[in-house]
Amino acid sequence: MKKRRIIQGGIVAAALCIAVVLGRSGANSDMKEEPEAVEEQTESTEKEEDGLSQEQQEMLEKISKTYDVEEQKEIASRLEEKKKSQDYTINNMLIEQNPFGTNNQSLYVYFNTDEPMNVSYTIHVKDSSVSDFAQNVYQTERYQTEHEFQVIGLVPNMENQITFFLTREDGSTDTKEIVFEMGDALGTEEVKLEQEVKGNVEDLEEGLYVVLGNDSEKLNFMYYYDNNGVLRGEVPLLGYRSCRLIFEQDYMYYSISETKMVQVNRLGQVTQVYELGNYELHHDYVFDDNGNMLILATDKTQNSVEDIVIKLDVNSGTVTEILDLGDLFGSYKAECQKNSDEKLDWMHINTIQWIGNGSILLSSRETSSIIKIDNVYDSPTVSYIIGEKSVWADTEYESLVFQKNGDFTIQGGQNSITYVKDESLSEGQYYVDLFHNNIEVNETSYYYKYLIDENVATFELIDSFEVPYSDCGGSVQNLDENTVIDSGMQGVFGEYDKSHELIASFQMNVETFVYRVYKYDFEGFYFAGSQKE
User: Fold this and answer.
1) What pLDDT sits at residue 47?
2) 216 CB neighbour count, 10 Å cutoff
3) How far apart are CA 506 and CA 492, in angstroms?
4) What are phi and psi of 333, to 5 degrees?
């Protein structure tokens, strides 16, 4: 297990490589085992069939075909042939459920209109506890005559009444209603989560809560939930988890296993599958300014884990290693010891943020530090470290630690850092939002907002509030007015208003943990504009 030093009355300074009598140790028999048993486990690249039922094995084989680009091209060609086979109109739509297999609760829709129109839809079910789901459809032009899109948000095991609204430029509207009987969900997650409402649900931001990593020993999915806790999307995965959704131009990208990323278009077609070769991705990925994807990874040929950053060229599929933290922290790594599984998890990077100009921020759980790296593509260097000075005491990196400005507890075992540039700040200043796990204190975790000032080498806590405790995992996300918090080990996520008062929270059944939850409005991808307007 890992050696962690407790300081300042129970504050975690670091998680692994803390100086002890025999050097920097990775063994501590007094540590409880939940964090390592959950977050440190090495999962297979794709879900192994051992332990799966016959039905689940068949489903996994079907999911594998979903992420076959040639299979996807054949499905797209078949749809193109259907589109040409007859005249599809508002009264004769081409509709297929989830033809590409990437969202069980979706419909592919195609038709033409004589006049340019925009499209919206509402999904209604007879269950009074399930609110209607209404969206404006994204189209290349606001008003057009050809309409091809996904309907997102069907409710499993219910009769879904879908009403399409087609609006002309003069404001006049035609409607068309269809009824679709939705079958079972593919996974075992609840269709309607237990919800606790503390405020006005109308104050919740628009969008869907995307559950990233309700890690399962069976099959893995990414789930979309609406503001009432109703399941509106179910995306199958090959294994591991999706770490986040990222968007570039007309595509959405996410991980489907430890060694595969995918590119998906608005219709749900998988247009690229990226193989990462000798690398296993973990925790996070981000785009740089040139459309390259930077991915946190493990080099499978090394005995250390979660200490590499690779670059994926999404056009060519080329994978390049750009950063090995062992090269930058060589003397520190040399004093660290392996875990009981003979893996050297000495840094454990769990978030990457692109700052620009070749610089990135990395969140290191094992050192409870946030690390800025400059010149990441040319000659990477450690610019500075935000964390507890005692972690880096008596090392060559001690002078790189910024000074804490104020009286507060420095983050411990943090997750989900977010770089925030604000025009009101001076050059060299920025904010960082993060989930402060407060690991080993075992009472309360926190939302933290730091002000980082590179000009005077300081960091200051400018905002925080208590959230349900999670010793590992967890996420924070600031929206326009509200903040979404996921407390991973408890399987609870919620949305808080600008005064940090809980509006509503949602409880999931948990096998291990709900790793992260982010809210996406999908505007400019699936949807256009606001239904509240």
Assistant:
1) 53
2) 18
3) 6
4) -60, -35
The tens digit of pLDDT for each residue in 332-380 reads: 999 999 887 888 999 999 999 999 999 999 999 999 999 999 999 999 9
Please count the other Cβ atoms lying within 10 Å of the Cβ belonging to residue 272: 16
Q: Identify the pLDDT of residue 217.
A: 66
Asked if 15 contacts 328 with a C-beta cutoff of 8 angstroms, the reply is no
Report the pLDDT value the prediction gives residue 21, as an integer from 0 to 100: 23
Contacts of 343 (CB under 8 A, 6+ apart): 40, 42, 303, 304, 305
Q: Whole-angstrom distance between the N-terminal and C-terminal Cα of the chain? A: 53
Residue type, 327: D
Query: Which residue in 203, 234, 191, 205 sits closest to 477, CA to CA?
Result: 205
Contacts of 291 (CB under 8 A, 6+ apart): 248, 249, 314, 315
pLDDT at residue 20, rounded to an integer = 26
Contact assessment for residue 111 and residue 95, using Cβ atoms and an 8 Å cutoff:
no
Q: Which parts of the chain have pLDDT scores under 70? A: 1-50, 215-217, 530-533
Q: In 103-214, where do the E strands start and end?
A: 106-124, 133-136, 144-152, 159-167, 173-181, 194-197, 208-214
Q: Rounded to whole angstroms, how far apart are CA atoms 509 and 507?
A: 7
